[in-house]
Specification:
Elements lengths: L2 E4 L4 H13 L3 E4 L17 E4 L7 H9 L4 E4 L9 H6 L3 E3 L6 H16 L2 H9 L17 E5 L3 H12 L3 E5 L5 H6 L3 E2 L2 H7 L2 E4 L13 H6 L5 E4 L8 H10 L4 E4 L21 H6 L5 E3 L8 H19 L11
Parallel strand pairs: 1-2, 1-3, 3-4, 4-5, 6-7, 6-9, 7-8, 9-10, 10-11, 11-12
Length: 332
């Protein structure tokens, strides 16, 4: 039976991917550690490796994987900025991903973060657990009648926009490839980035990480945002310049931030660090702000999304092993 080495695994990976891979005719060798050049040789005997968002698949790592016989890199995520695609193709490695596992999961988590932040749910919950039923300091604001700006209108961005329209919000959008038919159907207006930043009360990021989107949110773009505006990011951490974000929060330039991703999350998110000291000073600083809400890259974590990730990943493993084309839309 073909073998796949699965890196950076958690119990839910075993629960969902294990049975799906077995049904596709694969045996999984699960590793809790992340893939890098130092441990790539441990994939010896595997036909494929399966990696996640924080695994390292640079040229040295890929060269070592190819040297031990690996021929397929299966990403169980949508993003692929962690892999050197040029090196992979030069080495003859097939690369697949899961481009759309459950856009509803991420869109709904974006809204959950937003509502929890603006209605101060975490603070209220903590108070009530201590039998403090005071409402002092818990004043929020309505979404109804406000303006939301959606940067990036792929599947997740479009769903987030539609949910916000359901709250009675005016929704603006910005994307290099605007979907004008969708926008007209949902009464959403495409505008330039600067207009969106200047006008929106809520700004939600739904973009891939590319050289052009790296630190899209920076001192210049933050300066354009309304002082009470709220920024939401469930896409990629490096879309935001964290140093600039902290400065904007300290100065009151923006009203709040809800994050499910962080630009230096590798080695922190997905891990239990409660027994030690957090070495990341900027993340530590963010956690001190009362108007910042952070979850640790869990937007994808629903039963439906995990089921689809496992299904598509297993199908890609099966197809590539049989030298068939990968599932439509998953090859990169």
């Amino acid at each position: 039976m073909p073998l796949v080495a699965v890196y950076d695994t958690k119990p839910y990976d075993r629960d969902y991917l294990g049975p799906a891979a077995k049904a596709a005719g694969f045996t999984c060798r699960f590793h809790e550690f992340r893939l890098n050049a130092d441990n790539a040789a441990l994939a010896q005997g595997a036909d494929a490796v399966c990696i996640f968002v924080n695994d390292q698949a640079d040229r040295p790592t890929l060269e070592r994987l190819a040297a031990v016989g690996v021929r397929h890199i299966a990403l169980r995520c949508a993003g692929y900025n962690q892999i050197d695609l040029t090196a992979a193709h030069e080495l003859g490695l097939t690369v697949t991903r899961v481009p759309a596992y459950s856009p509803h999961a991420v869109a709904e988590h974006s809204i959950a973060l937003l509502l929890a932040l603006i209605r101060k749910i975490p603070r209220a919950h903590n108070r009530v657990r201590e039998l403090n039923f005071s409402l002092a300091g818990l004043v929020g604001f309505d979404l109804y009648g406000k303006t939301a700006g959606i940067i990036g209108t792929g599947q997740i961005g479009r769903l987030t926009a539609q949910i916000l329209r359901g709250f009675g919000m005016r929704v603006l959008a910005c994307d290099p490839a605007p979907d004008v038919t969708w926008a007209a159907t949902h009464e959403i207006a495409y505008v330039a980035l600067n207009e969106l930043l200047c006008t929106s009360d809520i700004i939600s990021l739904h973009l891939p990480l590319t050289p052009s989107t790296h630190h899209l949110i920076n001192p210049q773009t933050l300066a354009l945002m309304k002082p009470a505006s709220v920024l939401v990011n469930t896409s990629r951490g490096r879309l935001i310049d964290t140093t600039a974000l902290i400065a904007a929060l300290k100065s009151g330039q923006i009203g709040g931030v809800a994050l499910d991703v962080y630009e230096e999350e590798a080695g922190v998110f997905f891990e239990d660090l409660s027994g030690g000291v957090l070495a990341d000073d900027e993340l530590s600083r963010l956690l001190t702000f009362p108007n910042v809400l952070i979850t640790s890259h869990q937007a994808f974590l629903t039963h439906e999304a995990l089921t689809e990730i496992a299904r598509v990943t297993a199908e890609n493993l099966r197809r590539i092993a049989r030298r068939e084309p990968a599932t439509s839309g998953t090859s990169i």
